[in-house]
Every structure is written in C-alpha cells, then in structure tokens.
Amino acid sequence: MQAIRSLVMMWKYPRMVAWFLIVTALYLLGRLAFAKAQVIPYFIEFQPYIVIVPLAGAFWGPAGVWGALAGSLIGDALLAMWGPLTFFRGAGLFLFALSAQRLWSCFRRDEVIMPEWTQAVRFMTVALPGCFISASWPAWGAEWLKIYPFPYFGSLIVLNHVVFCTLLGPVLYGFAAREIVPHVGTWYDVMADGGVGEGLSGAGALVVFASGLGAYLAGLFAAWIFYGAWPTRSTVLGIASGGAVVISVLPILLLQVVGAFWGQGRSADAQGLAQSGR
C-alpha cells in the first residue's frame, strides 16, 4: 500500500525529516504553553494547538503524521502524563493527521489562492473526521481501563478539537497556503516516488467520515441505551459505563484504520497533471 510506503520512505528525505522535527517541536511548544490548563488533570488538556495536527498532516503528509505521534508521546513524558492512556492518545493523533493527509489527496493543491470560504470548507473537510477519531481512541481506552466513561471523556475532547479547529483552522490554513507553502513546498514536492500518485478513493473518504463520527456516536448511544450514561452525567475517576460500550466501539475503531489507509487510483494532483498534458 502506497500510504504505508510513504510513511516508511519519508525518512530518507532530509526535508521530510526536518519537517518532522518542526512539527514535533511546534506541537510540544503548544503542549508546554498550556501545560497548566488541564480540563481533567493528568488526562485531558486544554488544546488550542490541536489545529497543528490536521494542518501538518495535509501539507507535510508523513512528516506531520509522525510529528503528531512524537509530540503526543514526548509530551506525555515531559508533562508527567505518561500512563495507560498514552498509547490511545498517540494512536488517535496519528490517525487524525493521517486522515487529514489522505482526505487532502482528494483536492488539487495547485490552487493556492482561493476565496476564504473555500479555504474554510476545504480545511474543515479534512479536519472534522479527525476531531472525532482522535477523541474516540482515548475515550475507548478510558472506558476499557475503567478510568472515565466514554461519553464524558470523549465529549470533552471532541468539544475542544471541533471548537479550535473551526475557529483557528481556516485562518491558519489560508495563511499557510499563501505564505508558507509557495516557499517551502509540500510533501508532494519532495516525495515524487513515495506514494504521491495514490489518492484516497471515494469509498475510502466515506469510510473515514463514517467511522470517525460513527465511533463517537456508537460510544454515546451504547452508554445511554445500556447504562443510562450521557456526557453531562457527573462522574469521578475510576467509573466507567460498561463492557457494551467497549464492544460496540472497537469494530469502528478498526474501520478507522482501514479507511485511513484505503487508496485507489491517482491523487487529484496527478489527475490534473495528466489532463493538462504535463
């Protein structure tokens, strides 16, 4: 699969490694800046910087994906948050960036100057599924490990991610597209032989959207139907909804992985080049 190949092959390109280090550093700086602003101490942070993840995934592809994962793992170690949920947080952010990278492959990227409303729609298209993906993994882990109920834990993360991606994302996306990308390029400019030709298929995009939102909704409704739990229901550390939530959400989490790596045909860029005869 070309998507997997690009994640491995990126390490042979010095510019990709440099972008990986930059993304990791930016994410860590964001975490350190808001280290004291924790919604649930040692478990959930206030994260305006989350917008870095889909931006990096879209523009710098594999470097952004690995950078999001590294920032999550290193940040947990630096902020004394390393624990059972570290893997689930890292997996969620990895798939957040990867889903943004893959959905962005559906667009033409030579259209640098676009109306602001187009930039907003494009960014939210690639970012919104990841907001739910990155929430459902740690929420499922919290439920499975009996730390906090899925609805409570997941809803706090979703709220943070959707709010800040909506408020900050389109502005930063437009700025990056106009002021940064024309000068430094994207991963498509670097990895000409690393999987650029493969875009996300329509079925793959549908799976990403459906499984991203579906995992979160499945957790909410399973908790409500079987246990009467809801996001607004007060809870304390060590309380979980029940096994039905774990069982209901797990298959959809696996479907998220399938959707993120699902590819078919050529990217929108490759199609555009072929049609123009270049």
3D structure, described in words:
The protein has 278 residues and is mainly alpha-helical. It has one domain. Helix content is 71%, strand content 2%. Strands 1-2 form a two-stranded antiparallel sheet. The two termini are 25 Å apart.
**β-sheet strand percentage:** under 5%
Rounded to an integer in angstroms, the radius of gyration calculated over CA atoms is 18 Å
- Compute the number of helices: 10
Give the total of domains: 1
In short:
The chain has 278 residues and is mainly alpha-helical. It is 71% helix and 2% strand.
Outline the secondary-structure elements.
Layout: H1 2-9, H2 14-33, E1 38-40, E2 44-45, H3 52-78, H4 86-104, H5 116-144, H6 150-184, H7 187-190, H8 202-227, H9 243-261, H10 268-276
Antiparallel strand pairs: 1-2
Helix pairs in contact: 2-3, 3-4, 4-5, 4-9, 5-6, 5-8, 5-9, 6-8, 8-9
Descriptive key words:
disordered C terminus, mainly alpha, 278 residues, 2% strand, single chain, 2 strands, 71% helix
